[in-house]
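Most newcomers find our protein records easier to grasp once they have seen one. To make this concrete, we reproduce a full record directly below:

===
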Amino acid sequence: MKVLLLGDRFITNEIWKEALEKRFAGSGVIFSYAQHQLQWPVVPMESNEEVSEYSGTDEELLPLVADAEVILTHTGCITRRVLDNAPELKVIALGRGGPVNVNTAACTERKIPVIYAPGRNSGAVAEFTVGLIMAQSRNIPLSHHCLRYENQWRGDLYANEHVGSELSCCTLGLVGFGAIGSKVAKIMHDGFGSHVLIYDPYIPDEVKAKYPDYVFTELDTVLSQSDFISLHTKYTKETAGIISAEKIALMKPGSILINTARPQLVDYDALYAALKTGALGGAGLDVFEDEPPKAASRLYELENVTATPHLGGASRQAAAIGAAIAVDEVYGYLQEGRAPRFQFNKF
């Protein structure tokens, strides 16, 4: 079987190869490989009118795909032009939560399944979210910065008006209760004893019944009663700007907003104003309108903001899990003849 490995600096070709050979062990399948190394995340992703969030170019892939039966990638630029040069291609598998870097319509025309790996980084993002909550609420990044870079001993951060609260005494509000949100809830409730409020209109009653310790309620209630609000919903027409100036005004004085989901969920200008005036206590932000930013954001200047460069899903386990899920789907499709569970383009 001829396989093209399009690894990057997160899911490397070595990870892809290990996952593939482990899953196909004992099958009798012999692989021949073509490999190409992409440079994301050291080099930022790009987007065009056809595909988005990709690394490298389609031009560099053209000589590699001629004999490929399987493409395994995370961020490769899979355009119609690439597909037109891959007559033997049977399946494309990605170790990420959505195949935005693949022309799925063109794949559907060829009846080529596009496989992806939903939930592969849910554990990583959930842990990172809790890390931001703790970092922001207890002034960890601020005090580190002052000591490390300004040689300041910030004893004033021990003053009662500046110290945070222990998580056992706090209310966590979640906007979205999918794979990530549910794990954040478990860590915060079971691990720290936090009270949990949840807004997610798509959770059916029978699922809610499985979580008697959590309170499922309306968005305004979550915002007005929570000490921490963490966003874990998808970006859709319905959720765009869900945290607007009006909604930010409902939040408790001193509360903290955490966003490890999508920047389009939040009116960042309104958030800046609330943080600047002290209406909100702080924010932990892992996503921004421009990534990387074209210019320094005003948000970076605020002491009550913890900002990270979209690292929530970055763990060794997330990389390995993404590859393993995708490869397992390839095995089922090619060796067992079953329809992939995580096929994006149904036909």
The radius of gyration is 22 Å. The mean pLDDT is 96. The first helix runs from residue 13 to 23. Residues 24 and 331 are 7 Å apart (CA to CA).
